[in-house]
Structure formats: structure tokens, C-alpha cells
Design goal:
13 strands; Amidase signature (AS) enzymes; binds glutamine; 484 residues; alpha/beta; globular
Length: 484
């Protein structure tokens, strides 16, 4: 099956004309048609346009860039010109929102001839950890379709892991690339805040949102990152610093590397199979010549509560633009303007969005702003300082990605806090703005995938990717395929 190729292998074959871009795209389409009804990863199929693009590329015959002719899935909150883009929310359906422009990431991928074959499922406006808040219903992990794919980029993660595409795009505000990568058994990168442009991607919490890839291995991630990273005049928060040639960082040599193992990440309730897989990963790194160093990140326990103050505050402000006037859902015969807004937003938004708008509006109101939002920003600085301190003595940090393997669909339905706790090891990196990657590092006794998180200092994606690459050279977890 061509759709199971890595980007590197597919590129080699395309260049040698052993396969065509059209065959590669067709193979992804066939796979989606065959299995997507059991995982629900793809919410919009853009197959005709993808095939047309592939034929155009084949007739040019030029495959100089490693992403030329490579099919991928785009998370449903990335604006693509002429393609329905709804963040899996009812508020952007009926009439469906069709952006008149491309987000920067799409534009950069189009420029090199990568082919978007469709939109992938996400929690509504990326709020969630399981893809269950999507108006299109949940995505399952291809390892056990009664369990969630993780979220919010569950569609892209499940799509990559089940070979519906060669890579996927996601966003990570507090877990949303790394958690689904670990639940589906693929590799997912959260970049340094500002490394990739947020322009044209629907915002959730603007000071935490990052754009990144999900792929079959670290090598592919390096290729995608080199293409999509870098300063963007349309996003003032992107860093105006050079983008390294990431694939060149992948030497696989990590002899002498100092790797921190933070005590605070071995929390009560950490699943024993995950604890074991993390310890085994540390041993693998040692065998490769790295030194494992016990470190402390003392403010870790405050990350989740801090996140759940800053995130809903920013959400409440970002969601204000969905008023049913300029785009998306509207209602007939309103009594007056306020009635119009109320009904559009009550009908259009799901429960999780409403919960965050209410909490966020409360937190930002006069009197509470100082007590909550400002205080949370101060704690955020302490969390950032923890990492800065740690990176004075270690090169990268490793930890489990999630405390549990994928849980059953509906398991946290009536307990939002239990859902929030799934991100307990994943929000500190967004608060600090540092990069982190989740890579497959084993399986639970029930044959469910386990992820290992590698974190690096700001802007040091290259170093972190090399550690992940070395690990993938020494292990085969990332090559295992789900039973689907
Ligand atoms: N699960 C987290 C939340 O719901 C993070 C979501 C994300 O990263 N987009 O806020």
C-alpha cells in the first residue's frame, strides 16, 4: 500500500518515477474509503481537487522538493481557500464557511507541491482531549475503535497512524498534537511558540496556540518543519530568526547528550505500563551514549490550573467573533439584535465552548482579572523559569506524554475535569512556549500505544528532533501498524 510509505521513501520513489503522485494520492483515497467509516478521521474529502493537482505535478515531472506530490490531511481549523473549514463546530455550518484565502502553512505547503486531500476531525475549535466535542462525532484510535484517538488533532493523528495520508497538520494549545500522537502511535511535534505562523488558523488561546505536523517518523517531521517554519509578516508573534535545515540535524549521534528526567512527571496514578515504557526509553538513550540526569521542575503541579485560567480567558475573547453576522450559522426572524446573537451562539456552540466562554468572561471581569488572570501569568513565568533553569544543566528533557493509554469513547462524558487531567503532563510546555515532540515508545499490555515526550529549549527543535531520531533508529515502535 503506497499510503503507508514515509515521506522520505515516497519522495525517493517519486523522483525515480517508480510511482506517480496520482497513484500515491489514489492510494490514500482508497484507504480512506475503505477504513474511515470505522475511525471517522476525515470530515471533508477533497479528492477531485487532490487528483487534479497530482496529475498536474506528474506532468511537470519535477520532484525536487521532498514534499512535492505528497498527500496530507489538514485539521479542520486551518483555512484553505475554497475548502469548507468549520473547526468541527455547528456555528460554522449552515451555511458552511468557505474561506477565500489560504493560511500561511497551507500556502507554504502548496508552494512546494504538497497535496491536501481533505479536512481532518478535531474537537470543536480544538477544545478537548478526545475529538469527542466535534460536531461530526468522535475519532477512534485505529488500535481499538472503541477508544478515542485523543485530541484535539485526533483526525490527523488517526489518519497518519492508519495510513490514510502521509502526514497531517495539527494545532497544539495545551496537548492537541502530542496527546493524539501518543494515543494513535504516531510522531507529533509541538513547536516553539512563534516558530510557525498562526495566520489563517482559527484561534483558540492566542498566547498558547502552535501549529505543527504529525507524521510517521521524526525524519518526516524534520522535512515538514523546515518547509512550514519561519517568520511571517502576517503573524507578528513569529520569530524573525533563521530556520535551520532540520533534516541536517538528524545525525543520530547523541553520545554525551545530557537528558533530564523530571521527578514531578512521575505523578500518582501514572499507568504502570507507561512508567515502565518511560524508564525503558531512558535506558535506550543511555545505551546510545547519553547521560540520564534526575531533575526537578518544581512548579509542574501548578501548570494545569494555570492553563485553565489563561486558556478560557483567551478563548472567551477569541470566540466573540462568531456572531452569525459575517459568516456561519444564522437564524431566521430574530426579535432584535441581542436575541439574534443569543440564539446564534446558543445553537451554534457546543457545551465545552460555552463552559469556557462563561469561565473566561468571569475571569476577565473587573475585580477578578487581578486575582486570577494576572496571577496565572505570574505562575506561568515561574513555570518558564523552571525549564530555563533545567536547560542550564541538560540538553533535552524526557517524560511520558500522557498518564494513561487511550480511554474509551464516552468515558469522561460527564466529567470535564477528568478530561482536563489527561493533559496534566502536556500544558507546561505551552505555558513556557518550549518545543516538545511525542514519539511512540511502546505498547500497554492491552496493545495500546504509548508515547514518550521529548522537550527542548526555545528554538532548539533541531536538537530535540535528533534525540527522537536516534531513539527511532534504535527502536521499531514507530513502525508498528494498527490492526485496521
Ligand atoms: N485539551 C486541551 C484543552 O482542551 C488542549 C487543547 C489544544 O491543545 N487545542 O484545552
Amino acid at each position: 500500500m503506497l499510503s503507508s510509505l514515509s515521506i522520505t521513501d515516497a519522495h525517493r520513489k517519486l523522483k525515480k518515477k517508480e510511482i506517480s503522485a496520482e497513484e500515491l494520492v489514489q492510494s490514500c483515497i482508497d484507504r480512506i474509503e475503505k477504513i474511515d467509516s470505522s475511525i471517522n478521521a476525515v470530515v471533508f474529502r477533497n479528492f477531485d481537487s487532490a487528483l487534479k493537482e497530482a496529475k498536474k505535478i506528474d506532468s511537470s515531472g519535477i520532484f525536487d522538493h521532498p514534499l512535492t506530490g505528497i498527500p496530507y490531511l489538514t485539521k479542520d481549523n486551518f483555512c484553505e481557500a475554497g475548502v469548507p473549514t468549520t473547526a468541527c463546530s455547528r456555528i460554522l455550518q449552515d451555511p458552511v464557511y468557505i474561506p477565500p484565502f489560504d493560511c500561511t502553512t497551507t500556502k507554504r505547503l502548496k508552494n512546494v507541491g504538497a497535496i491536501s486531500i481533505g479536512k481532518s476531525n478535531t474537537d470543536e475549535f480544538t477544545m478537548g482531549s478526545s475529538t469527542e466535542t466535534s460536531c461530526f462525532g468522535p475519532t477512534s484510535t485505529p488500535w481499538d475503535t472503541t477508544r478515542v484517538a485523543g485530541g484535539s488533532s485526533g483526525g490527523s493523528a488517526a489518519g497518519v497512524a492508519s495510513d490514510e495520508c502521509l502526514f497531517g497538520l495539527g494545532t497544539d494549545t495545551g496537548s492537541s498534537i502530542r496527546l493524539p500522537a501518543s494515543f494513535c502511535g504516531c510522531t507529533g511535534l509541538k513547536v516553539t511558540y512563534g516558530r510557525t505562523s498562526r495566520y489563517g488558523v482559527m484561534s483558540m488561546a492566542s498566547s498558547l496556540d502552535t501549529i505543527g505536523p504529525l507524521a510517521k517518523n521524526v525524519e518526516d517531521i524534520a522535512i515538514i518543519l523546515r518547509t512550514i517554519a519561519g517568520h511571517d509578516p502576517y503573524d507578528a508573534t513569529t520569530g524573525n530568526i533563521p530556520v535551520p535545515d532540520y533534516p541536517k540535524h538528524l545525525t543520530g549521534v547523541i553520545k554525551g547528550m545530557k537528558i533530564g528526567l523530571p521527578r514531578e512527571y512521575f505523578i500518582d496514578g501514572l499507568h504502570t505500563d507507561i512508567e515502565q515504557a518511560t524508564k525503558d526509553a531512558a535506558k535506550t538513550f543511555e545505551k546510545l551514549g547519553a547521560t540520564i540526569i534526575d531533575i526537578s521542575l518544581p512548579h509542574t503541579e501548578y501548570a494545569l490550573p494555570t492553563y485553565y485560567i489563561i486558556c478560557p480567558s483567551e478563548v472567551s475573547s477569541n470566540m466573540a467573533r462568531y456572531d452569525g453576522v459575517r459568516f456561519g450559522h444564522s437564524i431566521k426572524t430574530p426579535k432584535h439584535l441581542i436575541d439574534y446573537y443569543e440564539r446564534v451562539r446558543s445553537e451554534g456552540f457546543g457545551d465545552e465552548i460555552k463552559r469556557r466562554i462563561i469561565i473566561g468572561t468571569y475571569l476577565l471581569s473587573a475585580g477578578y482579572f487581578e486575582a486570577y488572570y494576572r496571577k496565572a501569568q505570574k505562575v506561568r513565568t515561574l513555570i518558564t523559569n523552571d525549564f530555563d533553569e533545567a536547560f542550564k544543566t541538560v540538553d533535552v528533557i524526557i517524560a511520558p506524554t500522557s498518564p494513561n493509554p487511550p480511554f474509551g469513547i464516552g468515558a469522561h462524558q460527564n466529567d470535564p475535569v477528568a478530561m482536563y487531567l489527561e493533559d496534566i503532563l502536556l500544558t507546561p510546555q505551552n505555558l513556557a512556549g518550549i518545543p516538545a515532540i511525542s514519539i511512540p515508545s511502546g505498547f500497554s499490555k492491552k496493545n495500546l500505544p504509548i508515547g514518550l515526550q521529548i522537550m527542548g529549549p526555545h528554538w532548539e527543535e533541531g536538537r530535540m528532533l535528533n534525540a527522537g531520531y536516534a531513539f527511532q533508529q534504535a527502536t521499531d515502535w514507530h513502525t508498528r501498524k494498527p490492526p485496521l
